[in-house]
Specification:
The complex is a heterodimer. By secondary structure, chain A is an all-beta fold. Chain A has strands spanning 4-6, 11-14, 19-25, 32-38, 45-50, 55-57, 60-65, 70-75, 84-93, 99-103, 107-112. In chain A, 0% of the residues lie in helices and 56% in strands. Chain A is globular. In chain B, β4 (31-38) and β5 form a beta hairpin. The N and C termini of chain B lie far apart (36 Å). By secondary structure, chain B is an all-beta fold. The chains are: A mainly beta, B mainly beta.
Chain lengths: 113, 114
């Protein structure tokens, strides 16, 4: 079983749609969680961190359920510019040595006019 | 600030050739990482360096070596390239602060081994 698993996708949605990405992780010792965005053939960039209380940034809402080891990302009112691959990322903290990020395989989103 | 830079951007090697991928960051980060990304596999950690003078294996270290030259630079070497090493390689850096921190990625090196 992969440590971090995401919906396989791709998701093809019209502009204005709401789209939800789901992710599960297997290591209960994981301590921090992120969604990264990766545009075609570019480097991944942090979209948002995910906190237990849930957090929102404009049209984006991230949720974490530690008991179920489940992370979600909701995009409301999707735009053409949201087309990208969304990566679920889990961090296992190594103290002052930083941490190891484990990446899901990504879910591709294509928003159509 | 340039952030994280990588050279070269593209490379074609023949099986058995060697090469070094270079990475540098100007954010004064302590930790640096090398990943490879293959279709359907996500990013996988090859090696990382938590701080200057230390390196550790990640998930897929076989066939690679690394050098943390100084705080800024972290290189990845392929001693004898194989077609299975065809991939996109990303370098990243971070400054750990508590439990949550961001990794900053370079633009990637696209390597083809024939």
């Amino acid at each position: 079983r992969k440590e971090v698993e995401q919906d396989p996708g791709p998701f093809n949605v019209p502009e204005g749609a709401t789209v939800a990405f789901n992710c599960t992780y297997s290591n209960s010792a994981s301590q921090s969680f992120f969604w990264y965005r990766q545009d075609c053939r570019k480097e991944p960039k942090l979209l948002m961190s995910v906190y237990s209380s849930g957090n929102e940034d404009g049209r984006f809402t991230a949720q974490l359920n530690r008991a179920s080891q489940y992370i979600s990302l909701l995009i409301r009112d999707s735009k053409l510019s949201d087309s990208a691959t969304y990566l679920c990322v889990v961090n296992t903290y190594l103290g002052n040595q930083g941490g190891k990020l484990i990446f899901g395989q990504g879910t591709e989103l294509s928003v159509k006019p | 600030n340039a952030g994280v830079t990588q050279t070269p951007k593209f490379q074609v090697l023949k099986t058995g050739q060697s090469m070094t991928l270079q990475c540098a960051q100007d954010m004064n980060h302590n930790s640096m990482y090398w990943y490879r990304q293959d279709p359907g596999m996500g990013l996988r950690l090859i090696y990382y360096s938590a701080s200057e003078g230390t390196t550790d294996k990640g998930e897929v270290p076989n066939g690679y070596n690394v050098s943390r030259l100084n705080k800024r630079e972290f290189s990845l070497r392929l001693e004898s390239a194989a077609p299975s090493q065809t991939s996109v390689y990303f370098c990243a850096s971070s400054e750990p602060q508590g439990f949550s921190y961001e990794q900053y990625f370079g633009p990637g090196t696209r390597l083809t081994v024939t």
